[in-house]
Structures are given as C-alpha cells and as structure tokens.
Amino acid sequence: MIKSELITKIAEANPHLFHRDVERIVSTIFNEITNALAEGDRVELRGFGAFSVKTRPARVGRNPRTGDKVDVGEKKVPYFKTGKDLRVRMNT
Fold first, then answer.
1. N or C: which end of the chain has fewer CB within 10 A?
2. Superfamily of chain region 42-92
C-alpha cells in the first residue's frame, strides 16, 4: 500500500472528514515519525511496532565494477521491529 491508498482508505472509512484533512493528518504523522528518528529518538506504536535508529559502523567496502577497496563511513539507518499483535495477526 502506498501513501495515497492509505489516505483514500482512511477517508472512505471516515466520511465525516474531508479528504484534504485526512491527507494532512497522515502527512503530519509521517513527518513526526521522521523528525523523531532524525533526532535519534524511538517511536513506538503499540500493537504495530517500533521505529528506531541503528548505527552501522565504518567498514571497507568494494566497488563492484572495479573491485577496488572503498572506505564506507559510519551510517545511521532506520530500523523497524514489529509488535506482537502485528506478528500474531500476520501469522493467523
């Protein structure tokens, strides 16, 4: 599902809300999750899962085209861990 499909589903389930308001709500939620992760915070949505930031250490990589060694710096990457309710629902 993509963002526009999510907005449409929420708007259909809540006919009392305008489509533009649903779009603003969804965008605000995603922006707040993004901002929290950018600051290094953890975002937990009970029953769904938790977003956090993990740090990958610096390493020596390889250029696949030439085979030369390349230094790759430390990176911060988003990480998602599913909640128990979501795992149970997916596996029933």
1. C
2. IHF-like DNA-binding proteins (4.10.520.10)
